[in-house]
Write a structure and sequence with these properties.
The structure holds 2 protein chains of 2 kinds. Chain A is built from 3 helices and no strands. Chain A is an all-alpha fold. Chain A has a single domain, classed as Helix Hairpins. In chain A, α1 runs antiparallel to α2 (about 30-55) and α2 (about 30-55) packs antiparallel against α3 (about 60-90). A two-stranded antiparallel sheet of chain B has the order 1-2. The interface between A and B is small, with 11 and 11 residues.
């Protein structure tokens, strides 16, 4: 017995909403990065679900790409966060607003 | 073949302009003179070919190329010789060659490169002048017209390091531009009205119309063209540039500002005789302006003290005569006077040049005198020129001037009286010049305390070092100059006989030769020889009387002249200051333009409006960006929020569209 496609999509939407809320609400750069990962994985879930529903492997192939990009993004993002932390002993994104008018 | 006529001087110009400074004086002078003489030879050949043709079909046209072809407008670069052009090219190349030869001696003191520059300008001028008289339509004529104006500017300002010379050049150019503007409008109006700019086609189109009783389009065209002529030929109101043009080297004054270029306006009216003939209102204006100019310039010439300025006003006055002739429809007489005038006025200028040369740059008549014995060649040739211009019977000026006065008498007696008066003045001022310069005693050199005004009139030859101190021994004209003076003197004596009137047993050959150029002009009734003879007698008497007056005042009783000047002090001052025309123009035209330009155009329109618009755009952009840049908060979360909202907005748009 397979769960219907709509269930996967609803779960995915909930995960995406959680991720988005995390990005906006949390004041910690690491948490924000984690929230972004949650958003990416919500998207991954959508891809896999559609792939399965449509009996195609395309969805899974794209998921591999997304995971690769996510790994790279995490590496770069964490490196930046570490550099910023060394600079100002803070992880609050509002501490860095120098690039404005 | 016709192309060679302007092309040779043009090649001379190119050679002298490109390699002149390396050629040395002998070579660059030879190139320039050779080009002119070659051009003269070709002109003679063309004229000979013309004479052999039937009188009715006397015209040779050479179409060089089609210059502009655009819609229904075509301009061909066509050179055309008819009797009128033939006379003009012979005058331009003939007198031009002589003046080139004269210049080789006159400009000897200049450095090699200046010498070459001078001859390159002179050749360029000749080339343009020949294009002017050979062009078969208005556009080609206009090329020459503007070209000679340019060369005139360059040559007046030849000694450009002298402020007065470069100012005079600019004045000539600007005043001419005013006339040229009218001329160009006339050409455009002619094109709009007739659909062509070719002289012959316009003449054909006009002769199909009947003469305009009231002022109409043809009159307007003619009047606008005449405005151009007043500029180029120094008539009221645009004559003011010509006396100042005497800042140029004297041979230039002789060639450009006496013999050739200034006659371009007269030539242009002659070329469009049919057009002007159909515009009687305009012709009346031409005649009145000509007569007024002749009289006014004659009176000014009476009291001027600079030898070249006297001649300059004399030129203006004689040009007025030519316009008077044109205005009363005596085109052939006008051109005849143009032709004889070229001889004796060139002679007079070159004679004056020889005097100035001998006196190392002295131009003030008051410091001349007694040169008769020291400069015999100059004296006798100058005297021949003076007699010719005064209108003594038997010399060139007499025939042409009488021709004009006779036709004027037939047309309007009042204008004839003015002409007669001018004739009297001509004789007086010319012989005043002769007596002051060549007779009597020379005033001692006053090099120590020269007044400011005197230093201003005294000028023109910066190359000569010893200006002011009369040299102990005066040398007469060197051979090249003497040769030219003698040739021109002979010309001044005999040139008139080609137009010997029928009343004196001649054939009036000159007028008959020119006739086809002015056809289909209505012919005058057979002349009454009795009247013509009477008028000749009167004008001869007037000429002799004028010379007599000059003898009385300037040879025998100089004090009487001074006393007369004192008695009529106001008048004398008025004439000496040239009727304050320059001052009036300055007050009425120049200063208002300057004030308006400075206070309105510059300080309001330019600074406020134009600069304001440019700066305003800049400032408003700055102000707007001041607001926009507030959006760059620098906060990462704000950027993220805007990206998110943007995505939502786009998705929303596509979903709910």
């Amino acid at each position: 017995m397979m769960a219907p496609l709509a269930d996967y999509l609803i779960l995915s939407a909930i995960l995406f909403a959680i991720g988005t809320a995390g990005v906006f609400v949390r004041r910690n750069l690491i948490t924000i990065l984690l929230s972004i990962e949650i958003m990416l994985n919500a998207v991954n879930l959508t891809f896999v679900a559609f792939g399965r529903a449509l009996a195609s492997v395309d969805g899974q192939i794209i998921v591999f790409f997304v995971m690769t990009v996510a790994a790279a993004e995490a590496a770069v993002g964490l490196a930046i966060v570490i550099a910023l932390y060394r600079h100002r002993e803070s992880l609050n994104p509002d501490s860095w607003t120098a690039l404005k008018w | 073949m016709l192309l060679l006529i302007p092309l040779l001087p043009f090649l001379g110009f190119l050679v002298n302009a490109s390699f002149g400074r390396r050629l040395g004086k002998a070579a660059s002078g030879a190139v320039a003179c050779g080009a002119m003489l070659g051009s003269f030879a070709v002109s003679l050949a063309s004229a000979a070919r013309l004479v052999r043709l039937e009188p009715e079909s006397r015209a040779i046209a050479d179409q060089i190329f089609t210059w502009i072809a655009s819609g229904d407008f075509t301009a061909r670069f066509t050179l055309r010789v008819d009797p009128l052009s033939a006379v003009m090219i012979l005058v331009v190349t003939g007198v031009g060659s002589l003046i080139h030869i004269y210049s080789t001696a006159y400009m000897r003191e200049e450095s090699d490169s200046e010498y070459a520059r001078y001859f390159s300008y002179l050749n360029l001028f000749a080339a343009f002048m020949l294009v002017l008289v050979l062009g078969s339509n208005f556009l080609v004529l206009f090329v020459g017209w503007e070209g000679v104006g340019l060369c005139s500017y360059l040559l007046i300002g030849f000694w450009y390091q002298k402020k007065s010379a470069s100012d005079a050049g600019k004045k000539a150019f600007i005043v001419n531009r005013i006339g040229d503007f009218g001329f160009l409008l006339g050409v455009l109006l002619a094109f709009v009205h007739f659909g062509t700019i070719d002289f012959q086609e316009i003449a054909r189109a006009v002769s199909a119309l009947s003469p305009e009783r009231t002022f109409g389009t043809v009159s307007a065209i003619a009047l606008l063209l005449f405005v151009g002529a007043t500029g180029k030929s120094a008539q009221i109101p645009l004559y003011v540039w010509l006396p100042d043009a005497m800042e140029g080297p004297t041979p230039v004054s002789a060639l450009i500002h006496a013999a050739t270029m200034v006659t371009a306006g007269v030539y242009m009216i002659g070329r469009n005789a049919v057009l002007f003939g159909h515009a009687p209102e305009t012709l009346t204006i031409v005649a009145v302006v000509g007569a007024a100019t002749a009289l006014m310039a004659g009176t000014i010439g009476l009291v001027q003290n600079d030898i070249k300025r006297v001649l300059a006003y004399s030129t203006v006055s004689q040009l007025g005569y030519m316009f008077l002739a044109m205005g009363v429809g005596a085109y052939a007489a006008g051109i005849f006077h143009l032709y004889t005038h070229a001889f004796f006025k060139a002679l007079l200028f070159l004679g004056a040049g020889a005097v100035i040369h001998a006196l190392a740059g002295e131009q003030d008549l008051r410091r001349m005198g007694g040169l008769k014995d020291e400069l015999p060649v100059t004296y006798w040739t100058f005297l021949a020129g003076a007699i010719a211009i005064a209108g003594v019977p038997g010399l060139a000026g007499f025939f042409s001037k009488d021709e004009i006065l006779y036709h004027t008498f037939n047309s309007n007696v009042a204008l004839w009286v003015v002409g007669m008066l001018t004739s009297l003045l001509t004789a007086i001022y010319m012989f005043r010049l002769v007596f002051l310069a060549f007779h009597g005693d020379r005033a001692p050199a006053k090099s120590e305390h020269r007044g400011k005004e005197e230093a201003a009139t005294h000028s023109a030859h910066p190359a000569s070092h010893s200006a002011g101190q009369a040299p102990a021994h005066l040398h007469d004209a060197p051979p090249a100059m003497a040769f030219v003076l003698i040739v021109l003197a002979v010309g001044s004596v005999v040139a008139g006989y080609v137009g010997l009137p029928e009343a004196l047993g001649g054939g009036d050959w000159f007028a008959k030769f020119l006739e086809p150029s002015f056809a289909p002009q209505a012919h005058e009734a057979a002349a009454e020889h009795g009247l013509e003879l009477t008028l000749m007698l009167v004008s001869s008497l007037v000429a002799v009387a004028g010379i007599g007056v000059a003898i009385y005042f300037f040879l025998r009783h100089r004090q009487a002249a001074d006393r007369a000047a004192e008695r009529f002090d106001g008048l004398h001052r008025l004439l000496l200051n040239k009727y304050y025309v320059d001052e009036t123009y300055d007050a009425v035209v120049v200063q208002p333009i300057r004030i308006v330009s400075e206070n309105a155009l510059w300080k309001v329109i330019d600074v406020r409006l134009i600069d304001g618009a440019v700066n305003g755009v800049g400032e408003s952009v700055t102000g707007l960006s001041e607001l926009l840049r507030r959006m760059q908060t620098g906060s990462v979360r704000a950027y993220a929020a805007s990206v998110f909202l943007g995505v939502v907005a786009i998705l929303g748009y596509y979903l709910w569209r």
